[in-house]
Automatic annotation (TrEMBL):
Residues 1-32 form the signal peptide. Transmembrane segments: none annotated. Pfam families: GMC_oxred_C, GMC_oxred_N. Residues 287-301 form the Glucose-methanol-choline oxidoreductase N-terminal domain. This is Glucose-methanol-choline oxidoreductase N-terminal domain-containing protein. PROSITE patterns: GMC_OXRED_2. Belongs to the GMC oxidoreductase family. It comes from the Eukaryota.
Amino acid sequence: KNHTYSFTIMSFQTLWLFRIVLIVTFISHASCFPDQAGYYSFTKDAKLAPMFARFDYIIIGGGTSGCALAATLSQNASVLVLERGGSPYENPAATDIGNFATTLSNTSPKSWSQLFISEDGVYNTRARVLGGGSVLNAGFYTRAGDDYVKEAEWESGEVEAAYEWVEEKVAFQPPVMGWQTALKDGLLEAGEFPYNGFTYDHINGTKIGATIFDQAGHRHTAANLLEHANPDTLAVYLHATVHKILFTTKGRPRPKAYGVIFQDANGVLHKAELAKIATNEVILSAGAIGSPQLLMLSGVGPMAHLTAHKIKPVVLDHPMVGQGMGDNPMNAIFIPSPTPVEVSLIQVVGITKHNSYIEGASGVIFSYSWTRNYFDGVLNYLNEMQTSRTNTSTTFSTQSITDFFKSIHPLLSATTKAGLILQKVAGPVSRGHLELRNTNPNDNPSVRFNYYQEPEDLKKCVEGITTIIKVINSKAFAKFKYPDGTIHGLLDLILSIPTNLRPRHVTSVFDLRQFCIDTVMTIWHYHGGCQVGRVVDKNYKVLGIDGLRVIDGSTFLKSPGTNPQATVMMLGRYMGQKILRERGAFHKKDEEA
């Protein structure tokens, strides 16, 4: 009996202890268990932000790199993310594959897509939403090539691990159907060997890449990477427009970033500073337009330019800020189809030997309604800019764009019976620059990319268009083009569409060089402005300034892979890990001292 009684007491004690462990475990998990996408407890409107706060890291821009970086740094530090736009979870359906063009073309004042027109006369957009460009783009996911990783001097094992961390949340194998299969087979028929099947890797030949759309057509963006974050140490404020980075020179041989001033949607200014620890930093992740723009607005850039805009004080004369702007030129051929085609964005790519990438899309993205919506935004933009600039010459007046819609409506109303094959120039060699237009952080700066200024880029375009023509004329693609259609007719069709504001030449139908110049478009892969070796060092620290890094596509010398989004997300994770290691080593050394 005594033995039985002792066993019973022990059982109750064990049960009681087990219940205590369960409760403690539940409480601890409740405080640190990762939030699910769309239900982030740490995401709030900037109107709810305190007037003053301190953090270990302040990240400007909750975009493609900023989300990955924030999620990583939050594991061992307090992190503030300031995103000028809203949340993609406010309207999840808008990010689905069927709404791609509608969402991208919505350039209304509070939309996720902000229109700008470069000084080259080419329409372009900037993302203003948590997740950045990954919320708006065509979804293609592919890694950078091995040569790119080597040139960047990244550690290959860490890069691989960072890509895998990203892919766990956002990458999927696409369902390749009729039109995309014909594009694949047409590329092989055109000689773009070998066939590499489905792969994340950037290798010559024809391949099927990954996509950030799942099997149901739902988009997974960089914002999904915040599921990796520690919700107890991360604060994300939306509709938070940063006006300037704050610097101090007191008792220092060179400037040090110590905080930011940001504005909420009500116009109220807030201040955030770094906690007083030597390793803490402000990190710019505002993209290739926003990062150089904000450096200049904060007094870091070419002195003469800053002085002309009455920016005071000039913290550092940094002549390379805003320089080296590049945008991969895109040219496309629109192919009406006699048979219906699936809704597909970029899935198949031909990575050619002449450094032009061939890709295609089909289906509802060519509807009349979104095309009209987009060009309405263009006309509004031009009207707004008319009194303040422009140097851009154009043969397309407001009336000519209106006339275009009258003529094109019958064609575009058949939304499921057309495809588009495009070429993107790798590199490119041609470079431009970014300058402030005014001191309003909400307004676009002036950007010139100098498309096809260098003959090398133009040569790649001609070879790319030649490859597209081979694909269109291939047996594999015959089902998806009208038998009596001619290549000259298809080229003329693109020339008749106001794809940009550049002049048209009658010779373009017969001269592919002129066709490339006349019909150039963006594929939204612009980069530069804060380039490695010119504005930042190999660790992405701004040269000549302490406590400030730039980690985004503005640092790239050229765009990685056939689509940069995978590498931009990877870079956020990669550098986040590296910064945490540096932070740990510093504090360990400090403790030992």
